[in-house]
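Lab channel / #folding
Pinned by the channel admin:
"Please post every new chain as: sequence first, then the structure tokens as a reply. Keep commentary short and put observations after the output so the thread stays searchable."

First post following the new format, from NK:
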Amino acid sequence: MAATMMSRFCLCLLPLLAAGAARGESAVADPTRPPEAVNAGAGAAAAPGAAAATELVLQSVILPRTGRASAVISGQRVSLGDKLGDSKVLRIRETEVLLRGPAGEQHLLLNPAVIVTPVASTASPRVGKMRQSAGEKQ
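Reply from TO:
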């Protein structure tokens, strides 16, 4: 009886699954797939000279111990002195790249939303005094 019910259930589900597959739908979206907006912009950024027409985004900075520093800007790897559209790479640092073009200098930040603030010392004066008194006893 249970086997008969299971086979009827599967027969009912089969047309629904086939309809979804025919439309190209997936039951579960791929969580590692980038958003559609990223995929739509990938073709435009890959074309030569298209980086100058779109907003430039600093994606990565590579600072090797030996050799030339480089950066990935809008999907294109550049080094110091290279041209990116109408702009020239003037400086590459850990978190920024400086470009100079017809419109002037442009600073590209690796994490523009991150604001770095200095942290005040959290050591209490008591701890310092305890260390000093421990050092005096020795």
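NK: DSSP finds four helices and seven strands in the chain.
TO: also worth noting, The CA atoms of residues 70 and 79 lie 4 Å apart.
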